[in-house]
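Q: Okay, next protein. This is Carbon starvation protein A from Neomicrococcus aestuarii. I've checked the sequence twice, so it should be correct. Can you predict the 3D structure?
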Amino acid sequence: MTHRCLRRVVSTPTSQAQLPPAGVDPEVLEAEDKKWTPMKIAIWVAIALIGGIAWGVLAISRGETINAIWFVFAAVATYLIAYRFYSKYIEKKIAKPDDFRATPAEYKSNGKDFMPTDRRVLFGHHFAAIAGAGPLVGPVLAAQLGYLPGTLWIIIGVILAGAVQDYLVMFFSMRRGGRSLGQMAREELGLIGGTAALLATLTIMIIIVAILALVVVNALGESAWGVYSVALTIPIALFMGIYLRYIRPGKVMEISVIGFVLLMFAIISGRWVAESEWGSALFHLDRPVIAWAIIIYGFVAAVLPVWLLLAPRDYLSTFMKIGVIALLAIAIIVVRPEISVPAFSEYASRTDGPVVAGPLFPFLFVTIACGALSGFHALISSGTTPKLVEKERQTRFLGYGGMLMESFVAIMALVAAISIDRGIYFAMNSSAAATGGTVEGAVAFVNSLGLVGVNLTPDVLTELARNVGEESVVSRTGGAPTLAVGIAHIMNQWFGGTAMMGFWYHFAIMFEALFILTAVDAGTRVARFMLQDALGNFIPKFKDTSWRLGAWICTALMVAGWGYILILGVTDPLGGINTFFPLFGIANQLLAALALAVVMTIVARRGNFKHLWVVIVPLVFATVVTTVASLYKIFSPVPAIGYWAQNAAFRKALDEGKESFGTAKTVEAMEAVVRNTTVQGTLSIIFLVLTLTVIVTAIIATIRSFPNGRGDETEDPAVESRIYAPAGVISSPAEKELEKQWANLPAELQPTRAKH
């Protein structure tokens, strides 16, 4: 139905004649898009040349070092070209948005879950929710393979897979009233595929949120400075929410400045507190204690009103995230650090990596989860964001653009990780079971790896720990501490010198913890929506998201699920992140394959088979990668790779009466390995079976739609829009003209939208 038809059939309380158009005429937009001036051509040629040169250096260079600026230039140039051309192609050929059609944020607006939200603020909310541990941790762990494999996957993967998934899931969810991915699958794929999708999304969500939380625990464990600074961000966010809601409504810039000042105070005062006797006693916490604190926080944050904690924390952390990554990119250009890590390391052709075990294919692609393709994003793109989008054309900026920004975060994380000494890298990312948790043990272990050019000494590790204000940096697994060291290493060369390394390190730790905690609370909230959707199929009352009791019950169930996995990871003798992160990566990518399968079915039902390849290409790749990775984890006879092989080895050792085995030094530790590998192996089988069931039913549904499709019968009925907003950050000339018309309306006719 075109927007002209919409205007004929939809009546409104206020005459449409009183309002300007709800969108720019599509023919005007098309003319603007096709208008190429000499200046415009020159700019895009320059971008292409810079990107081409940078890629040439990265691909060909095999010297002792390579300058880090080429990573920045290659990434930024490629992202700009992909956003301008490929995402526009997807918009025109597949999504086909219509700004004259109201979004659910407009026609379902209730001031709570549904409300038109300024696109710039919503970009912050969305980016904060999707950008969790993956783009920070995955590239750091994958750095053991060298710089080139990770760089290629992060940049090419996001353009052809990750951003495509995020954009189309968001668009199709928005067209369906903001329904969750599992509910969309149930409607598109029928009982079998839909039920499998609901179960898969719920169970995978549990493992994803658990690992996100585990990264925070590992970053803050035994760090009084880090615990204090991150804990202080909670009352800061609460204050910002109350300030914008009641004290100074709409004063976003004002509270941004106040929030930034308070954040700086939290970091700077952290050193004083950590070095004091009372502060060290109060905030120097063991990891299980921090884990329980995060479990409690996750429940409370998910049931509080969005405006009180989630929105201001997202807004605050988005400023931190984008600001820090931009600052890091500028610092790299200024400092121009030389990278000594080879393009392909010794472990690129081996399977015994001390950080992540297994061959490059498929484990590179599941280790770098969120930076290139993330199923978790599909849950956010079908959870909170589509309920807040003002206009349909904004989904390209939010979905595709938001994912490109996350990919840039991943590239910066990779550069930071490979900028530090390789010996330090392996000392920090090898498990305590391998290093013994001591400087001497770490030195002995790293030097025994036989890495070219690596000769680690105890002085290097003790001096680094002293410079960053920590007791030790040995076996600080999880990626976050390594990234913090990398950021501090680059930033102190630009500003402050060695004396500022402690500040920059803890600044980065708080930046990362904010990054990840926003994903934990947003993920828990989305998981609650998903469970309510699922239970609502049997008990309709649960579909009412404003029903407080139902919300509390579903939140408690989901928190109990991921909290259990978190405790297993924290107490894992093999180094929780080293063994649990591959499961996180595989589950995440399986979820991405599931999401792409649902999108494929929807596109096919629209009858758009000519452009179905845009979805099929990433779907096939994700399915192959995750299936092969799952089969490795289930059937590999190598204990370091296969969960069941590891389980069998430790069971045998227990049956033989051994009191220690491998890296487990006690009977309790051996029993913990058996318990954890049983959970991991079982989940691997469940995830794979459910996902393949969904993909098969999606293929059948797609084939049945051939050749003419079956229509968009699962979309919400079209409603005429009565508000207007531009599609991107910068308005086009036609959009500016229409904005003026809306700005000149009387106050009583101005649309109401969320400001924070």
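A: Here is a summary of the prediction. The chain is about 70% helix and 0% strand. Confidence is low (pLDDT under 50) at residues 1-16.
Q: Noted. On to the next one.
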